[in-house]
Amino acid sequence: MREHYNQIGYETDVAAWASEQAWLIRNKKFELIDIEHIAEEIEDVGKSEQRELANRMAVLIAHLLKWQFEPERRGASWTRTIKEQRKALGFHIKDVPSLKNKLFNPEWQGAVWADAVTIAIKETGIESFPETCPWTIENILSQDWLPN
């Protein structure tokens, strides 16, 4: 265990800085901790969780779009991806329950829809997807539901 404070810079080496800050907190050296950067890092953890939720949801919705708009290409791979994303989203929301509120935020839904459409356009070449999501969150997350 360390016996002194090395004052590692946040901008120099964030991993070493984080380790040092943890050591300072555990050793009750509160007057030496970098409060401002610790607060930023804590906020970033929440943002990272939100980004993961949005990314997974966009991938899921993109696959649901492909399922609906390219029925001739439906296959086990798409089914597997849809199931995996739904399962991962369920685990993620269970692990971070406060994220469930994001699912029902219209602004968040719009941003995720736009990302999903961008993915679907890149993967299909189709550019005539709906302006807004035609499905409910409940449908999107339901293990048994697929668009017609």
* Amino- and carboxy-terminal Cα gap: 61 Å
Indicate the proportion of strand residues. Answer: under 5%
**Can you write the helix and strand succession as a string?**
HHHHHH
List how many beta strands DSSP finds. 0
Descriptive notes:
The chain is built from 6 helices and no strands. Helix 2 runs antiparallel to helix 3 and helix 2 (35-69) packs across helix 5 (106-124). The chain has 148 residues and is mainly alpha-helical. It has a domain at 48-141. Helices cover 65% and strands 0% of the residues.
Write the layout of secondary structure elements.
Elements (H helix, E strand, L loop, with lengths): L13 H13 L8 H35 L6 H20 L4 H4 L2 H19 L12 H5 L7
Summarize, please.
This protein is mostly helical.
What are the main properties of this structure?
148 residues, mainly alpha, 6 helices
